[in-house]
Design goal:
alpha+beta, five-stranded antiparallel beta sheet, about 190 residues
């Protein structure tokens, strides 16, 4: 009788360990599924908040830069969106110091981003020199071969902003100097 009782105890113990192992495996699986879904949810919240915050930063960005006029220098106050509107109207081009300062602030925002950013801007105003609805302006992180715009090109050299997954800010309508700019920021991951 003692042998049968010993065998029963061993079998009961093995059965109990098997139940515990199955329960632990189930909890581990459920925890990992929950963790993956939570990670995706938190990443979505963070990235969309980041793009909205980046748009708010550009909307409220005021700065000063120095210009030389006839041997003397003067400080000029500017708002980023007003300078963008002036650029879109053709008041200055990419070789002008105003563009370099404006672009420098965009590059600063890019350097602080957790992933590459793409700002898409256009205006429906007919007098726009750059940034029409048919051909919007794109401000991307990086320069030259390291530019996000270069990475977004297809094999035939066409820009494909949908090539990689991204999160986007809401499409916003902002006052850019005398223009009404339609813009959004995408963050690629």
């Amino acid at each position: 009788m003692d042998v049968k009782r010993g065998q029963a105890v061993v079998i009961d113990g093995l059965f109990f360990l098997m139940i515990c192992g199955f329960a632990a495996a189930t909890l581990l699986w459920a925890g990992s599924v929950y963790g993956d879904k939570s990670f995706e949810a938190y990443r979505y919240i963070y990235m969309t908040d980041y793009t909205g915050g980046a748009m708010a930063v550009l909307s409220n960005l005021d700065y000063e830069y120095t210009v030389s006029i006839g041997g003397s220098s003067a400080a000029v106050k500017a708002a980023w969106l007003d300078e963008l509107g002036s650029y879109m109207l053709g008041e200055f081009n990419e070789t002008d110091a105003r563009y370099k300062v404006m672009r420098g602030h965009w590059d600063t925002l890019c350097s602080q981003a957790p992933a590459p950013l793409l700002l898409t801007v256009y205006s429906e105003y007919e007098g726009t020199a750059r940034g029409t609805q048919e051909e919007p302006l794109y401000f991307a992180c990086g320069e030259g071969d390291r530019s996000l715009l270069k990475a977004l090109e297809d094999e035939d050299g066409e820009l494909n902003i949908f090539k990689y997954p991204y999160y986007s800010s809401d499409i916003m309508s902002k006052s850019c100097s005398t223009l009404r700019c339609i813009m959004d920021i995408k963050i690629y991951y």
